[in-house]
Design goal:
- This protein is of the alpha+beta class.
- It has 2 domains: 1-244, no CATH class; 248-498, Beta Barrel (Porin).
- Helices cover 25% and strands 35% of the residues.
- Helix 1 (13-23) packs across helix 6, helix 1 (13-23) packs across helix 7 (211-221) and helix 4 packs parallel to helix 8 (223-230).
């Protein structure tokens, strides 16, 4: 098979802003021993020698943004600026919360700080969305303020961890929370690195997009990076890509779905038809010649689904922290190692969130000419929380460390047809969550058949199922389930439906 690169040159500014994340708008460079956002100055500008996925000649790409450089071309890195920016963000957030949030847990004083320093760390019961969505996003801001000051992934994770501890002690008057510490620092970092890399892709938005449009789009994806670019820290930059660019597959889906089966259990929420937007980007797919996995998140999957019913219905960021490629045969290539992930799921009846570490693998296998199978399998342990939306009875809020697993398969037939199957399972139990005295099992599954009509335009028929089985004292119901079937328009500019050629 001939080698090819999966890049896409956007032609219009509006497309560049809305869809740059889904396209991987970068050009392939020469093979090198490392790839991804670089932490040094050895990177060389990428070259434009391939054709774009739709068969048109690829125009030369501007040098994409990369590691920050000082005026004398030395790498920019400032531990002090990162710390000051995080503290400044916390002060501003505390003052906003103090002015607008009720009850007011933000009237911080020296007395409250001394009390929190002496206090034992607790497991708080703040609203689910605050603990499981707000805190991870807050941690991603800490992470990206550090990352955009030139710090590495692990250094930025350390800053997110320290920033979370400072907030727990000096940002609120309530006792410090260990669950917030985990989700803010680790969940925030796993989410933050994916946002940082996607913002960098937006900055290389392709032909026709203006610098203002690219800067605005990047700031929306990663406010920390956008802020520091406005400060002028990255006006001089080396190439983002140290060698071969990653193979990427992205898609944006818009459509509607109807409930096909449901069991509300102890929820008072109503089942409704959904109008949804669904975005996914898989970055660093195995099999790209010359691409290696030296840095955290050189491979990652990011997906998000927004609906008119619950707003953010699902969010996943899963990346390879440590790992290596393997190739047991000419037609099969993969990567294996330790993955870090953050998951948030909120179908219409219940919610679950998890920050986890898992062992797993991604693989692509050419079964025949024009027929490829991509897959992911992982299993590990996450800090997990589940809860019923609008519960009719108490005792269904479960917290604790719990086993979990993920499986994904994608069968690709040429450049026209693809079948996707996926499942994620979470297993909260009495051992993991002894305080609740209950058990929780959650399964999220999906099946999608996509047909490419013309160019990047496709139609997708999708089935989603979200199932929960649980047992709590004084709760008679034991199950919740919500299934839906929908039809979606899909914009997916990658060639061959995402299969990587080698």
């Amino acid at each position: 098979m001939n080698a090819s690169d999966y890049t896409f040159r956007l032609r219009r500014p509006v497309q560049a802003l809305l869809l740059a994340l889904a396209t991987g708008a970068v050009q392939a460079g020469p093979a090198a021993p490392s790839a991804g956002p670089s932490d040094d100055t050895t990177a060389a500008p990428a070259t434009a020698q391939d054709r774009d996925p739709l068969g048109e000649p690829a125009a030369a790409s501007p040098t994409p943004p990369g590691p920050l450089l000082k005026e004398d071309a030395r790498p920019y890195k400032s531990y002090g600026a990162a710390a000051l920016e995080i503290i400044g963000f916390q002060v501003a957030l505390n003052r906003i919360d103090h002015a607008f949030v009720t009850p007011d847990d933000y009237r911080v004083s020296m007395g409250s700080i001394r009390r929190n320093l002496r206090s034992s760390w607790v497991e708080d019961r703040d609203p689910f969305a605050i603990n499981q969505l707000g805190h991870p996003y807050q941690g991603s801001v800490y992470f990206n303020l550090a990352r955009s000051n030139g710090l590495t992934f692990w250094e930025s994770l350390g800053y997110a961890f320290a920033g979370s501890a400072v907030w727990e002690i000096a940002g609120e008057t309530t006792p410090p929370s260990r669950n917030d510490q985990i989700t803010t620092s680790f969940g925030g970092s796993f989410l933050g690195e994916a946002l940082y890399r996607m913002a960098s892709l937006v900055l290389d938005g392709g032909d026709g997009s203006t610098p203002l449009l690219r800067e605005t789009g990047a700031a929306v994806v990663s406010p920390g990076l956008g802020y520091n670019r406005q400060r002028g820290l990255s006006r001089r930059a080396a190439s983002l890509w140290a060698g071969a660019t990653p193979a990427m597959f992205g898609r944006l889906q818009l459509g509607a779905s109807n409930p096909s089966s449901s069991n509300v259990g102890p929820s008072l929420a109503t089942r409704r038809r959904e109008v949804a937007a669904d975005f996914a980007l898989e970055y660093g797919l195995p099999g790209k010649e010359g691409y290696t996995y030296h840095k955290p998140f050189d491979y990652f999957l990011f997906s998000a689904r927004v609906s008119n019913v619950n707003g953010l219905e699902s969010l996943t960021s899963r990346g390879l922290l440590f790992g290596a490629p393997y190739s047991p045969g000419h037609n099969l290539r993969g990567i294996a190692g330790l993955y870090g992930s953050y998951d948030y799921l909120s179908p219409q009846l219940f919610r679950i969130a998890s920050t986890s570490l898992s062992l797993g693998s991604n693989v692509q296998w050419w079964l025949a000419e024009g027929l490829a199978l991509q897959g992911h399998l992982s299993a590990g342990v996450g800090y997990t929380s589940t809860g019923t939306i609008r519960p009719s009875s108490g005792g269904q809020y479960n917290y604790g460390f719990a086993p979990q697993s993920a499986l994904g398969l994608r069968l690709i037939l040429g450049d026209r047809l693809a079948l996707d199957l996926g499942a994620r399972a979470y297993f909260d139990g009495k051992v993991a969550s002894p305080e609740t005295g209950g058990t929780d099992r959650v399964l999220r599954g999906d099946a999608a058949l996509t047909y490419r009509v013309h160019g990047p335009h496709a139609l997708t028929l999708k089935y989603l199922t979200s199932r929960r089985r649980f047992s709590f004292p004084n709760v008679l119901e034991t199950q919740q389930r919500y299934d839906s079937v929908g039809l979606y328009y899909s914009y997916q500019p990658s060639h061959a439906m995402g299969a990587v050629q080698w």
